[in-house]
Amino acid sequence: MQRAGGRCRQPPEDGPMENGGGQEPGAPRAPETPEAAVRPPRARPRLVFHTQLAHGSPTGRIEGFTNVRELYAKIAEVFGISPTEILFCTLNTHKVDMQKLLGGQIGLEDFIFAHVRGETKEVEVTKTEDALGLTITDNGAGYAFIKRIKEGSIINRIETVCVGDSIEAINDHTIVGCRHYEVARMLRELPRAQPFTLRLVQPKKAFDMIGQRTRNSKCMAEDRVASGKETLRLRTTGAATLEEGPSATEEAAARRVDDLLESYMGIRDSELASSMVETARGAGSTAALAAGLAALLGDFAFPEEFVVQLWVAAGRHE
Q1: Nearest C-alpha neighbor of 196 from the set 222, 224, 167
Q2: Are 104 and 222 in contact, with CB atoms under 8 Å apart?
Q3: Cys-Cys link to 257, which of 199, 215, 239, 273 (CB 3.0-4.6 A)?
């Protein structure tokens, strides 16, 4: 047994010790070590989010995801479906509202609604103009879908094509697993005056009965408003991080870049726009920015004009 004054005192083998657990009579009491006086670090709070299927379901709880794909897997596990059934998610509304689309960040009080696969439909399109009038985004987990349809455009004249429809195939060539900018490039490269076929999957719609049975819970969920600026930032790849929400300046720069993406590429993606802003602000020149974009998006080629406008939109001219 180590006597008083040592850092470690072992209990006796034959029953309890007297005088405070083994200190010999008359021996000075061992001082507390600094390690013993330090309180253990406070545990990180559990991040638990509430979720429903947008067409109607009980409320589930999810936690423990670190990226977008894991988020979809957690939601699927709660409702006993495959992750591939989920087309996209909206925050605080069960409606197909592209302004409430789950992008790169989730507020800690946000309620997540998952929109799942509904009916499949095929439409034939003839490209009479270079632009179809589609703005495309993706869910970060393999599905590209329609975020906006330009009024008066080719697609706008086809009534069966709707915002929220997932693009599953172009001329029977599946595009599941492609990023939105790849899909936009495929559509842009289709020849004019030659018909092509789009296979689309629309989000599952609620039956009136289901809507009535879940209306109260949905209304409660849609009334939830984030109480603070702290958000969970999700990335298509890599781990999620808990951080403060973007500043007004950062949000404005990301919106400008998102608009630029739509005008050049026919896509909108708030996460990608934010990542591009970060890339621009970490670059020392437009040449370095071009290299950073290549690392971010692989071999997708941006014209020099786009890189310069991105540089300005990200606030690097200030």
Answers
A1: 167
A2: no
A3: 273
Q: How far is the C-alpha of 254 from the C-alpha of 250, rounded, in Å?
A: 6
Q: How many CA atoms lie within 13 A of 277 on its CB side?
A: 23
CA pair distance 28, 286, nearest whole angstrom? 71
Q: What is the pTM of this model?
A: 0.70
Superfamily covering domain 48-203: PDZ domain (2.30.42.10)
CA torsion 268→272→273→274, rounded to 10°? 140
Selection from 148, 133, 145, 155 nearest residue 180 by Cα = 145
Contact between 51 and 112 under an 8 Å Cβ cutoff? The reply is yes
Bridge partners, 113 (sequence order): 52, 90
Question: Which residue type occupies 279?
Answer: T
DSSP letters along 86-145, please? EEEEEES-SS--GGGB--SEEETT-EEEEEEEEEEEEEEEE--SS---EEEEE-SSS-EE
pLDDT in tens, 224-260: 444 445 777 676 666 666 666 667 888 888 889 888 8
Domain boundaries, the chain: 48-203, 246-314
